[in-house]
Amino acid sequence: MFEKVRTILAKQLRLDPNRIELSSKIKKDLGADSLDILQLLMRIEDEYGIVIPDESLAKFDTVADVVTYLEAQQNG
Asked: So which residues are the catalytic ones?
């Protein structure tokens, strides 16, 4: 799951995937702004066929938060 999220983030933010770690903060460490996060959300929703509620999105601080959420949805 982490590899997929890392690939999506790297494409979205035009970063070297090796720079993205589970502990990376999406805004602070990776430089994502609100629009980047919205586009990332839409890409993940399309990729996984899910809808992420706004209240869950607000809790996404690190890459690990996104991965944990997606794994819970998959196992849900």
From this structure: 33
* Token pair recorded at residue 15: 């970063």
Q: Which two tokens stand for residue 23?
A: 């502990």
Q: Residue written as tokens 């430089």?
A: 31
Q: How many CA atoms lie within 13 A of 8 on its CB side?
A: 22
Q: What is the pLDDT of residue 14?
A: 95
Asked if 63 and 23 touch (Cβ cutoff 8 Å), the reply is yes
Please give the model's pTM, rounded to 2 decimal places: 0.88
**Count of CA atoms in the C-beta half-sphere (13 A) of 58:** 3
Domains of the chain with CATH codes: 2-75 (1.10.1200.10)
